[in-house]
Design a protein that fits this description.
Blueprint lengths: L2 H20 L1 H13 L8 H12 L1 H5 L9 H17 L3 H20 L1 H6 L1 H6 L8 H25 L4 E4 L2 E4 L3 E4 L7 H17 L4 H32 L2 H34 L6 H23 L3
Antiparallel strand pairs: 1-2, 2-3
Helix pairs in contact: 1-6, 5-6, 9-11, 10-11, 10-12, 11-12
Amino acid sequence: MPDNLLRLVSVTLMLLAVTVWAYWSTIADLFKEWQSNDDYSAGQLVPLIALFLVWRERKRLGRCLLKPCWWGMALLVLALTARTFGLLFMYESAERYSLVLATAGLVLMVAGRQTFRSVSWILLFLFLMVPLPGRIHNLISGPLQRMATTGSVFLLEAFGVRVSQQGNVVMLNQDIPMAVAEACSGLRMLTAFIIVAAFLAYMVNRSRLQKAVLLFSSIPLAVACNILRLCVTAVLFLFASAEVAKKFFHDFAGLAMMPVAVLLMFGELWLMDKLTLPEPNPQQGQPRAQAKSASRAHAIFSRNKPQ
């Protein structure tokens, strides 16, 4: 191994160890949040997926020029500022986001701009491992809960089930209440679907527009799948028992909706293929254009030819 590469690896490992030591309390709190909060339990998969994506791009990253860039210090200063703000004002989300900023700053400072551009999407993907701040969580959870309740009532009525809505409680046949609690809002499904959609958008070979459509479509897909899960649960309430319905909702349905979402996303990619017109091949269009220009030149020459 060349001396400069050995020195670069040594500096990288040292800075990584210092970063882990400095953010150890933040990493520990983040892990506890993943384990205790079901809405953000999928976040623990994000670092593992990011490592897989880096390993997948190892050949392309090996061709990048390793040239340290001191602009990475600006990201590190920004990360330090965010963490200081979080510590002073007890705002743990700022500390967690500063961990991602510090990682991005280290990549830019040690590996350089070319490597940073190559892994910039993966660095953005790391933000998905951080749970939403409390205010944003409350702004999203409430509307999702109401949307799930109203959507399930509409779908059940469409299939002829006698149902009414009282706040976030669905009354089945006017005498069987089914409460749509905050845990049933679908936020857990939403965060998981966004992570899966972001992973698929990175893996598939599509245009940026199709990748963006796939990513943003994960939001209505998550809402629709949660409404479907509530409707199946309501049917079990009516024709089975409350115990079976609750077990289905919390155990089986949560696992079953993920492959359903993946199939829907692949179906969406197939549909976008069918709706997208193929780009004309320049090699095929070239002979035709040459033939048209030749015939036009022949016509002009014949017109100007002396009689």
